[in-house]
Amino acid sequence: MSEQGMTQPKEDKGIVDIFKIGLDVWLQEMRGVFSRLLGNFEICQLDKRLEREYALLGKLSCGDAKGDIELCKKQIDFFKDEISKLKKEQAAKRDVKHRDNERKMDL
Fold first, then answer.
1. pLDDT of residue 90 exceeding 50
2. How much is the pTM?
């Protein structure tokens, strides 16, 4: 066997291949941005509902409205827990992304 048959040709990436790689990277970044936007929107909506529950609790405490104070307090605790969980989840995703980026840069 000759040496020519055993050597493999180097793979040259054309402009189309580079464009595909760039497009894949861009799509991954857009997914991350969209995911963060949705998470922030969800937290914002929960904050608004939490504020409404606090306002309702104030009205119930003053006797200006009819309703169950205990239920209102449970709702407030629920919204606080959900907001806390979502913020922790976002921080964990951010940490994983940061760690992955550091590993890629070390290669």
1. yes
2. 0.69
